[in-house]
Amino acid sequence: MKTRLGKLFDSFRFQRIRSRVLLGMIVISVPALFLLGYVSFNTAKDTLMETNTRTNQDHLKTSSEVAELLFQNIENLNQAIVFDEGTRDELRLSNQISDRGLYDLPQKIRSRMQRVMNNNFIDSSYVDSVCLLNLNMEAYCLGRSDDAGKYEGSDKLAVIPSEEWYRTASDAQGRVVFLGSNVLENNPNSFSSVKLFRDAVNLEGKPIGMLIVNISSSIFDRIFIGAKSYGGTYLAIDSSVTPVRIIYPGQSELTPTLEQGDLTSIFAQLENQGYLNSKYVNETTEWTFLHAIKANMLLRQSNQIGVFTATIAFLIALGAILLSYFISGGITRPLLKLKKMMVDWTKGAREFDEISGKDEVSVIGSTFRRMAFENDELNHRLIESKLKEREAELRVLQAQINPHFLYNTLDSIYWMAMLQKHKNIAQMAISLSKSFKLSLNNGRETILVYKEFMHIEHYLTIQNIRYNERFTFHQNVDDSIMRIEMLKLLLQPLVENAITHGLEPQIGEGTVSLTGKRDGEFLVFVVEDDGVGMEDLSVIEKGFGMRNVKERLTLYYGPSSSFDIMSEKGKGTKVTLRFRPYEKEWQPDAESRVI
Predict the structure, then answer these.
(1) DSSP of 340-360, one letter per residue?
(2) pLDDT digits over 382-400, tens only?
């Protein structure tokens, strides 16, 4: 009976110790996991918002630069009409006669303006109409009726000069002024540029009229065409007046909800409605280009990351609890065995203690301290491994954002170069973008052979643009190996080394050749140039590029692979790679079946 009670008491103490160990491990691991998930979510959220702000600023800046080009075209139209001698003579004549139909002036002035636009190759696709007002406020228009619009009446001679836009244009002394509305009519779909028409013959530059160009608001569809694909609403605001005037768009989900006020008030209203705002001021017009996007739309991806992180944290916490349960059992069972051994040992050691005088308590204490230390070390390693796992997930998320930003930037450079008709810059931008994508290769270590060659072609395109077509590239590769996978960035660094160290230092043109073939179970690639060559091959070990290729080749394909180099000063260099692809690399996947 006493033995049974002892076993029951020992079992109860075993469960109590196990529960304490289990509870301690849960307290250490689970809160840390959830805290880590919370920090990861907020870090991803902040990173996403910062990236969005920078990206939108870049888009607005690019849109402003496109606007500069289009508004410069409008200014060129103004200058061409003002400097046309025939138009100036007809306008001066209209100020001197009372009967405008006497010399058929309206038709002559319209014809002169149309001829100016045609002869100067001016793009008028966004010009609604062009009007000349003489000093008698008589209108001569191309693209609309010959009248002063909303000012037409007996008192227009007194009303028009008193208008703010007329005074602003007069004060500008011949500079083109862009206004946020159509000055001749209440048309929300157009705005005007005005310019004081001064007599170039007169030494004092005496004004003889006012030139008004009415521009379609659809011009902003072209200005924001590249940025609209990223979501949100883009607005053009004339902030030079109070209350500010929204020039574009005429109607949107935002404009009906905004009350009149200054620019600060508009920003405050948008923020109160849950919008995140970015702005950029156009230099030519001094208008504000604004991007507004709903915060919940932008953070939708971040919320998905939060749900995903919380789910992962919960599953890991559940796994930690189960693991803690089994670990606690594994810890307490040896303790109980140790206790039993100590009890048995104590009974037999009393006589030995009397003889030797040693204290067994110190031995037992040292054992427990060592076991407690090992337990703490185990818990520390567990928490550290979970932290590293969460940090790796965060780095993956950031790596998905940064390339996307670089691709968008290169795409903006490409379109800006095309607008400026700089085809070489555009080609370099698109080649660099494609080369970067091939280098990343979606994070994979291996790449199809034909894609490695595409990488080389993009690199050579950039170099030939830089060095004015100095380099010739010959490629002789068996078609049968094009769909085999190989370790990426094995061949492109060799071609780059041939260009940089072989062909660049020499005078005149140079040639790089690349051959590839099968040799039994092996693939053999040879990169050869006719550059300056080298005497001492030991310099290869001091550099980074070729040494890196050699080490990666050996690590990935093993000792059966080979890296051989031959060079002769003044004649060129030849590099030969030989390796056996892995069996799985000989089977093309779904992506490699289409070239």
Answers:
(1) HHHHHHHHHHHHHHHHH---H
(2) 776 666 655 555 454 445 4
